[in-house]
Amino acid sequence: MAVRTAVRAAVVPAVGAPLEVTGIELPEPGPGQVRVRLAAAGVCHSDLSLSNGTMRVPLPAVLGHEGAGTVVAVGEGVTHVLPGDGVVLNWAPSCGACHPCSLGEVWLCANALNGAANKHARRADDGTDLHPGLNVAAFAEETVVAASCVLPCPDGIPLTDAALLGCAVLTGYGAVHHSAKVREGEAVAVFGVGGVGLATLQAARIAGASRIVAVDVSPAKEELARAAGATDYLVASDTTAREIRGLTGKQGVDVAVECVGRAVTIRTAWDSTRRGGRTTVVGIGGKDQQVAFNALEIFHWGRTLSGCVYGNADPARDLPVLAEHVRTGRLDLGALVTERIALDGIPAAFENMLAGKGGRALVVF
Ligand SMILES: [Zn+2]
Ligand SMILES: [Zn+2]
Predict the structure, then answer these.
(1) In the Cβ-directed half-sphere of 344, how many Cα atoms lie within 13 Å?
(2) Does the global pTM surpass 0.85?
(3) Mean pLDDT over all residues of the chain?
(4) Residue closest to 107 by CA, chosen among 308, 321, 306
(5) For residue 346, how far is its CA from the centre of ligand 1 (angstroms)?
(6) I want to staple 67 with a disulfide (CB 3.0 to 4.6 A). Which of 138, 139, 177, 256 is the partner?
């Protein structure tokens, strides 16, 4: 192995074990690899799901998949970025060769997470090999990733803001524009006001939605939600679907976007749409979350229920579009961040997420 240098990183040793901030040793980038010094990394609910076993990747791993930084070195054959370039990390690179890729559905690439099996680093203290979580291992001062995991950062976007483009914004924007295909004048309900929920609210505003109802268990997020575009705010209860119909001439919203991943919110989202309405599920739940529908209501309501992976986004195509929305002020990346923290702050950020508090915590290096 070539020369290694040590940097600090947040490591998950095993399922359910507490995160450890420790030194890791990274190799120089090999052929087709890029070494990146992180500027910032967002703490996403999926990081929590990976650490507690709701989602599985090989462990021990360096988590973090929403980041941006500066290229410090490139391996042989890498030509699309150079040392000194600002880049956004893409945790789901597409192979271009599998069946979904051949259909242009790159967000469903069968090989997107192959890199998770690699060992990209090792602990400085005991030499244990480490996996790169969702490919990019962004909870670290530096990381080494496949060249397909870095996209040039669009001009004019500070790297700390650009980090959010890598997961929350692509997901929320894509849920509205690619999955639900919200049209101007439609009414939209967004369930869950975390990082993705806030991005979804902003995307609904960009789409020209007439009414945007935000729903969350916490009354404390109303101001954040309204600043992101919500015209109405509801604290989740047994009567949420009825309240939403009340706000929309008894019909229900045209589109509901569920950003929680729980059976009760998926069911409520579906119930809150009009006849023929569309529900997009962005939230990632566990196998214990069983959603029930009866056969008659599926027929009668004529509704659609769709899953949505990574916003059905093609990062290479969508980043420039998002950047243009940022430059014109339609998309406010800074407004998604509710807390700026250091690497050591990630466990507390996980606790906040479990307690339903806050929007996006951003690790700033
Ligand atoms: Zn994420
Ligand atoms: Zn593919």
Answers:
(1) 0
(2) yes
(3) 95
(4) 308
(5) 14
(6) 138
